[in-house]
Amino acid sequence: MRLSTIILTLLLGASSVTAQTAKPKYRLTWQDHFRGKTFDSRSWTKIPRSASADWKRYMSPADSLYDVRNGKLILRGAVNTNLEADTAQFVTGGLYTKHKRTVKYGKVEVRAKLGRAQGAWPAIWMLPDVDIQWPHGGEIDIMEHLNHDSIVYQTIHTNYTVRLKQTDNPPHGKTHPIDRDGFNTYAVELLHDSIVFSVNGDSYFTYPRIQTDKEGQYPFDRPYYLLIDMQTEGSWVGKAIKSELPVEMEIDWVKMYDLVE
């Protein structure tokens, strides 16, 4: 083989590897640094209560559970002290961007500090912004934290993982250590062929689209909205200790990006 042909072959091989490993590019489409006196209702809505799931059993619109302080959004979980108006044992604050801010293919980043308490279950996550029964539309858990843990959970839920129990092919979640006393940045990338999770810039877990004849393995081809909520109690997190409440989660900022294709 001539030297020029060898060089050309090597160059073509190198360019092919570069193309396959090129990082996705994103364009910032929306961000919120919580500069006002309250959250922006053009982007956020208080999450309504429902008895259909643990995570929203204690959601409340009470103003005491929501605050914007020093450029931070504050969401609280507390013992309910106004039983005449609301018979729920606990009350929690949560916001979502449903029908207001969504991402189809792109990236979401949230910088947050998590309070700790037995029974506290703060979460940052995404659901499809269309009318589709769970879990067929998919759920993307950017961050879930339990009690006093020094780790967070990042997880995918679909019909494939929930109903068909295919949780290990491929693995549908991982955990990552965090600074329990400081702010951490949680992120997810929604791509055509994979969902990529990171904590503080460490992209350590990827959930790929695979070839399978089983239903609903990768439904992530639609717009998703963001939920941020200070949940309390549930079958996973366990019972709350009232003396450790109230508990807060602080959100420094939120950013959404579209994938540049």
Structural features, described:
The protein has 261 residues and is mostly beta strands. It has a single domain, classed as Jelly Rolls (Sandwich). 9% of the residues lie in helices and 42% in strands. The strands form two sheets. Strands 1, 3, 4, 5, 8, 13, 14, 15 and 17 form a nine-stranded antiparallel beta sheet that branches. Strands 2, 6, 7, 9, 10, 11, 12 and 16 form an eight-stranded antiparallel beta sheet that branches. Residues 5-12 and 14-19 have low confidence and may be disordered.
Blueprint of the fold:
Elements: H1 3-21, E1 25-32, E2 45-46, E3 66-69, E4 72-79, E5 90-92, E6 94-96, E7 102-103, E8 106-114, E9 120-128, E10 139-144, E11 151-157, H2 159-162, E12 173-177, E13 184-190, E14 194-199, E15 202-208, E16 224-232, E17 247-260
- Level-2 CATH architecture: Sandwich
Helix content: under 10%
Structural class: mainly beta
Count of individual beta strands: 17
What is the count of DSSP helices, taking H or I runs of 4+ residues?
2
CATH class: Mainly Beta
Termini, distance in Å? 38 Å
Q: Roughly what is the average pLDDT, rounded to an integer?
A: 93
> Strand portion, in percent?
35-45%
Total domains = 1
- Unreliable spans: 5-12, 14-19
Question: Quick one: biggest sheet?
Answer: 9 strands, antiparallel
- What do we call the CATH topology? Jelly Rolls
